[in-house]
Write a structure and sequence with these properties.
Chitinase A, domain 3; seven-stranded antiparallel sheet; 7 strands; 26% helix
């Protein structure tokens, strides 16, 4: 009896770990992002990878690229508005190769002094694994300000 309960538990556990088709997840994420944009009367640009970005102020300082180190102030939240991460006002410094793909791609859309919003599909965020308090396959939104290109 104990063996069959263990076997049943393992079967249920493996069934719940079924991988989500990446194309299906991308379509789901796009629907979520479009709904968020519609609900908040926002218009975004979208990249070939599916990253949505809104440039509120381009900035007039130095430009960066995907290999740059930068200081950024940010607030990260889910589409329901729940904040999951936030930098201090003075920002934090990091290399753009050390962060999620959505930031590596998105931050270079701004110049130093610029700010806006990144709406990041899950594949460009933490994907099917999630991270810490971020659940798997979650669209993330970041209000970002590029304070300095280092």
């Amino acid at each position: 009896m104990k063996f069959s309960l263990t076997l049943l538990t393992l079967c249920i556990a493996f069934a719940s770990c079924k991988k989500v088709d990446p194309e299906e997840q991308a379509a789901t994420d796009e629907t979520i992002i479009q709904q968020y944009l519609s609900d908040h009367s926002l218009t975004s640009s979208v990249s070939a990878t599916g990253l949505h970005y809104i440039i509120e102020e381009l900035g007039s300082g130095a430009s960066c690229n995907s290999n740059s180190s930068v200081r950024v102030s940010y607030r990260g939240y889910y589409t329901d508005g729940t904040v999951f991460d936030e930098s201090p006002l003075q920002g934090i410094e990091f290399g753009l190769q050390q962060v999620i793909k959505g930031w590596t791609e998105g931050i270079p859309y701004f110049k130093e002094g610029g700010n806006g919003v990144l709406l990041i599909p899950s594949a460009l965020a933490y994907g099917e694994n999630g991270s810490g308090s971020v659940p798997p396959n979650t669209v993330l939104i970041f209000d970002v300000a590029l304070l300095q290109v280092l």
